[in-house]
Amino acid sequence: MMAIVEVTDGVEVDLASLHRAHYRDLVTLASFMVDDVGRCEELVQDAFANLAGRSRSLRDPQSAAAYLRSAVLNGARSALRRRDPRSRLLIAGSTGSGVERPDEVAERHDEEAVVLAALRSLPHQQQAVLVLRYWLSLTEAEIAASLGIRVGTVKTHARRGLAALAVRLEDPR
Amino acid sequence: MTGTDPSVDPLEQTAQRLRGALVSRARAVDARVLGSDPGVVVPIERRARRNRALWLAPAGAVAAIVMLVAVAVLVTDGGSNPQVTTGAGSTIDTMGTSSTSTPPESTISAAPTTLAQVPPLTKPPKSTTSTMPVDRTIVGWPGQGSTRYPTARSAATAFADTVLGFAQSSFVRQTSEDVPVGGTAQVTIKSRPTAGATTTITAARNGSRSWVVRGATSSQGTITRSTFGPDRIDVAGTASAFEATVTIRALSLGATKLGEDITMAGSTGKLPYEGSVSYRGGPAAFVLTGESDASGEGDLVWACVVLDPALG
Description:
The complex is a heterodimer.
Chain A: E1 4-8, E2 11-14, H1 15-31, H2 37-54, H3 64-81, H4 102-120, H5 124-134, H6 140-147, H7 151-170
Antiparallel strand pairs in A: 1-2
Helix pairs in contact in A: 1-2, 1-3, 2-3, 3-6, 4-7, 5-7, 6-7
Chain B: H1 10-30, H2 41-80, E1 83-87, E2 90-93, E3 99-101, H3 112-115, H4 119-122, H5 152-164, E4 170-174, E5 184-190, E6 199-207, E7 210-218, E8 225-228, E9 232-239, E10 245-251, E11 257-264, E12 271-278, E13 286-292, E14 300-307
Antiparallel strand pairs in B: 1-2, 2-3, 4-5, 5-6, 6-7, 7-14, 8-9, 9-12, 10-11, 10-13, 13-14
């Protein structure tokens, strides 16, 4: 099976390599906004399928990762807007490593749920900027490329998003 | 885990909590993900092929319709104007029934089947109706070369989120998006689902899948006059805002804030206002009046936006 997509004439991107390098991070990225992990995997597969189908529109093969991140974030946003029921299920504990005590696991999941709920209450662009910055540790320029916005807008979203998150965490109402 | 250390910046504490939650969530998700098995690429390629097939079917249908329309036009024109000049005095019966030529003998006067293929080459080009709208250059946010918004709603929502700073923008309604290139649609949005004020954003169709924002009106205010100068914009209208304070803002086409000021209007009902905003770093493309929310970050709860008429 050919797992190579041609980005521009003579420039090729190995889909399998991209998949190996980014699949888990992309699913995790989607999971910060959409609870159902299966749905997140579908969103990521859609993003890869779109990349394979429209690869010629990418002028720079280095932008494939940014394209994928953008496609996943937009897909998550669309899923939430369509009120896809699988997208809003609450986080169900999940797989503890077994080394933590149950009360530690519960506390960690409580904190995770509270912070993620606050994060999800922010406008989509602010969520996306915060996640790309604090999870993937992308630079402002990389975030701007991923979201198709200007660096100045990234800074604004980061500042406002973090401030709004602080307010929401202080007063979760 | 949520304890606070007064010596640490509150925003840094928030960032640390966010990092912790993201790491925790990532750890949980990582164990449940299918993984990077190369075999997973196969269904992705299958999905890509299916997507292409989904695109090809309507594209084929459109092509077939275009062909049928073209044939119908040719047949209709052939009936009403059966003879066309081929040059050198030759004429061709487009219906394929006869062919005549003035001396010397024309080589075209051969079999009717051959003649029937000639007219499209000899007739002047006809105007055709394209089913695929082409991009125009309609001035509006976000400007050329920026993100393309495929629907009026996506353009309006992005404008509300990123330019107006609506905290939790909530879609209310929109007029039909089924307009030709150059047409407009109105998308009404609230800054929060519970907000009373609405802002109706006008988006223009710039291409088949490209919309730009050209202005906005609000239930809480109007802009009745705006004068764009090289470094100052004068504006007037009516508005009702908290503590009667209306923000005036000059924006570039990419929505960079170039200048800001405030003026007074009504607080319990709409009252007239007048004001001006000086700016630099221009040129300004938009003037905006609106009510700021309590965050102090410049976010708005409603806004009226006018594009400089000189920009077209």
